[in-house]
Amino acid sequence: MNEAIKVNIDRLPPRELERLFMAKFRLLLTEVFPKSEVEIHASPARDLGVDFVATVQGPAGPRLEFLVECKSQPRPSQVPEAPGGLRDSEVPAVAIEREFNKDHTLKIARSWVFAAAFVSPRLAEVCWERGWGWFDLAGNCRISVPGLLYLDRKGNQPVHRLSRPDANLGTPEAARVLRALLMPEHGAVRWASQRELREAIEPGVSLGLINKVVAHLRNEGHLTADGKDGLRVVDPEKLLLAWQDAYRFDRMPRGEWFTLLKGADIERAMREVNLGHETRVAWAAFSAAERQAPMVRQPKYWLMASEDHADWVREALKATPVETGANLTLLIAPDRGYLAGAKDEDQAGPCTHPLQTYLDTWHAGGRGQEAAQAVLERRLKPSWEKITVP
Length: 390
Hints:
Blueprint: H1 2-8, H2 14-32, E1 39-42, E2 52-57, E3 63-71, E4 96-100, E5 106-116, H3 121-129, E6 133-136, E7 141-145, E8 149-153, H4 172-182, E9 190-191, H5 194-199, H6 207-219, E10 223-226, E11 230-233, H7 236-246, E12 254-258, H8 263-274, E13 281-283, H9 285-292, E14 301-306, H10 310-316, E15 320-321, E16 328-333, E17 343-344, E18 350-351, H11 354-362, H12 368-385
Parallel strand pairs: 3-5, 5-6, 14-16
Antiparallel strand pairs: 1-2, 2-3, 4-5, 6-7, 7-8, 9-11, 10-11, 12-15, 12-16, 13-14, 17-18
Helix pairs in contact: 4-7, 9-11, 9-12, 11-12
């Protein structure tokens, strides 16, 4: 049966899809309340702004009422700010309403639930932030009525084909746009227009690509409109985490070398390569993290260089390519944007920008995630917090 849903989900008429959601939600509630009757019906005459209502008598006394809104393949940006018309300031982790008996005992507890054919981690996060419980056709869910019910299930595979994302955040070109949006040095979390954003992107990209990436980030709830043509980053850390998930560290060319030079000698060689020019080589990954936010020490050196200077760097470091026993890894930057924002850290030689350090270290293995988290907490988050929004 799931296979049929998987094949035909996008072709189902709205009413049929709604019936699938009703059946799945009934099953979820029946598993929790096996001795209670679950009633599911279309939204009452009064406008609740939902697709159906489910009710069940809770064992603790009050009746539970769930107001369910259904979408086939929603984007996080389509989740309403607050269910039931409640003001944002009134929405807790889960938006609920309560009705009481004359003796002040709880009669009905009402909660809002967002239903989708597939709920991505980002969509689940946005639902919860905006006061919605949620479930999907695979049976994954997070539904809560504080003090009466908490249902959290994850890990079931989607039961229908997923649509491709609007933009691939893992490409070097998309990385240029993300870098511009997140670099604290730009002093902006909002932009008057996409053309203004384009001026901060290095190397430059087309307005068409910017529009594609921006549209995707808006759909995912990472960017929001600001004025007529402007845009604003909603949460820099969450946007970075989305980039981290898409980042393809495994596809970055690299060289595994052995050198007899030590730290100070390597720093001198780096200065010679960079002398009088934009940064051509910089400390990267673990080596950059060790200088930007010391947390993890490891014996291997990590550098990043532009492709056209890789051989020059190898000669300056007197390094030899080896199959085993390498003590130096050189990451080859796909474009000069990967070295954008590199600067000296306490006269220890230039390091990749903390954004780049975070991404590379997170994916480098070993204790990389621990080292990356230190860069996030000590360097990136304080820098973002200093940016004032007019």
